[in-house]
Design a protein that fits this description.
This protein has 458 residues and is an alpha/beta fold. Helix content is 33%, strand content 25%. It has a 6-stranded mixed sheet, with helices on both faces. The chain has a 4-stranded parallel sheet with strand order 13-12-11-17. It has a 3-stranded antiparallel sheet with strand order 6-7-8. Residues 429-458 have low confidence and may be disordered. Bound molecules: flavin-adenine dinucleotide.
């Protein structure tokens, strides 16, 4: 049957990988549908700055429709993808914006880039006490908890309890954990120091807990050591070879290498450990019979297709490429997104694409003001130069001119004043607000003591 219909490409996930695939097809004679459950793309490398009041949410997220408004061959569908029917070539979606029930979105070529999520190592119950630092919701929740902890310390008269309010445990010594620990330490020692009257925010303990023998395991050992030193200079304490074995509302238990368990009284914990693939990897594996690795990532062929389904590509954090060991990083996802667009174009013109090849441009992690480490093609940098490169790279990849401008402005002001402009507690609306059990417990405790006649400082 001859049809005039254009080739339909459905892209699932508007993150680093999916968005590059959509943008890469902007001049091709195809109709692209981008499906995401969020109406924005999130610049995850700067999420920790939202969590510590350095940037506002809108500065690191950009609406997908705004990005694609001039790309006439692309449309955006806000929906949850819940499965695939690879034989009928349909994507199964739910939760459409009008409340519509389950629907099918047909495709000729499918690109799936659902990303990853944090794994609590089989202890999902820890999540309520140690929120993840990956989504915007998680970052705002953490910001509320961190800032509310300083508020609680200000009115807490019991020294032990005040110490617990001023103790922050970050789980996971990868780049995100290191960045988060550095930022909380800077917040406590610089930005907040003069804001409180009773609480000595400078005495805050920031513990960065890593199960492995060193921080930043993906970096050379010398840079791990420098990062640990920089953190200590900022006032954070790296605890390597410590495995978190329990997270409760007001304490974190960690096991040392000798088997002994230490309980740290801490009212605030942040989870930045253990990543597992999006559940879409398992959905695709179940449909196609493809394998998944230990991190739940779908094994894809060197041309990023799902084995047995040359019309289905999977990319980004949720996949591992056969014969390669690629890290879960934004450059990998972006290069794969661009590759997917090229591969689709090649196939449409009857050519077979070359296998995907990752061009490794290096690895960066920031620790704090003027402190970062960089491993660029064997060149190991630490300190101001690494930090300047980090700033440039992050600004370069941040989407949207306006966002870049706002972030430069914010960073300049923060650098000069050592302040943080976005220090808002948004979820604690009034006393007794039940939306954040952790805060509520603290507030109720304070209210109870006021009722009982205990004097609240100040
Ligand atoms: C806190 C943090 C800091 C990081 N810092 C760095 C860094 O400094 N440098 C670096 O290179 N990398 C960094 N990374 C890693 C980097 O962000 C990821 O490698 C990259 O985001 C992967 O891109 P992706 O497109 O695969 O997934 P994502 O960017 O996560 O995009 C996935 C998209 O899929 C959508 N989605 C998922 N499931 C569904 C569904 N069922 N239905 C509809 N939509 C769905 C999501 O809403 C999302 O928009 C960091 C990650 C985190 C969490």
């Amino acid at each position: 049957m001859i049809t005039n219909r254009r080739h339909r490409v459905v892209v699932v996930g508007g993150g680093f990988a999916g968005l590059q695939a959509v943008r890469g097809l902007r001049r091709d004679p195809v109709d692209v549908t981008l499906i995401d459950r969020q109406n924005y793309t999130l610049f995850q490398p700067l999420v920790y700055q939202v969590a510590t009041g350095g940037l506002s949410a809108a500065e690191i997220a950009m609406p997908l429709r705004a990005i694609l408004k001039r790309q006439d061959n692309a449309r955006v569908l806000l929906a949850d993808v819940v499965g695939f029917d690879l034989d009928r070539r349909d994507v199964l979606v739910e939760h459409l914006a009008n409340g519509g029930g389950p629907s099918r979105v047909p495709y000729d070529t499918l690109v799936v880039a659902g990303g990853s999520r944090y794994s609590y190592f089989g202890h999902d119950e820890w999540q309520q006490h140690a929120p993840e630092l990956k989504s915007l919701g998680g970052a705002l929740d953490i910001r509320d908890r961190v800032l509310a902890a300083f508020e609680a310390a200000e009115v807490e008269t019991d020294p032990a309890k005040r110490r617990a309010w001023l103790t922050f445990v970050i789980v996971g010594g990868g780049p995100t954990g290191v960045e988060m620990a550095g930022q909380i330490a800077e917040l406590a020692r610089n930005a907040l120091r003069r804001d409180f009257r009773s609480a000595d925010t400078g005495s805050a303990r920031v513990l960065l807990v890593e199960a492995g023998p060193r921080l930043l395991p993906a970096f050379p050992e010398s840079l791990s050591r420098k990062a640990a030193r920089s953190l200590e200079q900022l006032g954070a304490t790296p605890l390597v070879a410590h495995t978190v074995v329990d997270v409760a509302a007001d304490s974190v238990a960690m096991q040392r290498q000798d088997g002994s368990v230490e309980h740290v009284e801490a009212q605030t914990a942040v989870w930045a450990a253990g990543v597992t693939a999006s559940s879409l990897a398992a959905e695709l594996a179940a449909e196609s019979g493809a394998d998944v690795d230990r991190a739940g990532r779908l094994m894809v062929r060197p041309d990023l297709t799902v084995p047995g389904y040359p019309d289905v590509l999977a990319l980004g954090d949720m996949v591992q490429v056969e014969g390669a060991r690629l890290p879960g990083l934004a450059p990998v996802a972006m290069q794969q997104g661009r590759y997917a667009a090229r591969a689709i174009r090649a196939r449409l013109s009857g050519r077979e694409p070359e296998p995907f090849h990752y061009l490794d441009k290096g690895n960066l992690a920031t620790i704090g003001r003027s402190k970062a480490v960089a491993d660029i093609k064997g060149l190991h940098l630490a300190g101001f130069l690494a930090w300047a490169i980090w700033l440039f790279v992050h600004l370069f990849y941040l989407i949207g001119f306006q966002n870049r401008l706002l972030v430069v402005l914010r960073w300049t002001i923060s650098f000069v004043t050592r302040g943080r402009g976005a220090r808002l507690i948004v979820q604690r609306r009034s006393t007794g607000d039940t939306r954040v059990p952790w805060v509520t417990r603290g507030v109720r405790g304070i209210a109870q003591r006021v009722e009982n006649g205990t004097r609240v400082s100040p």
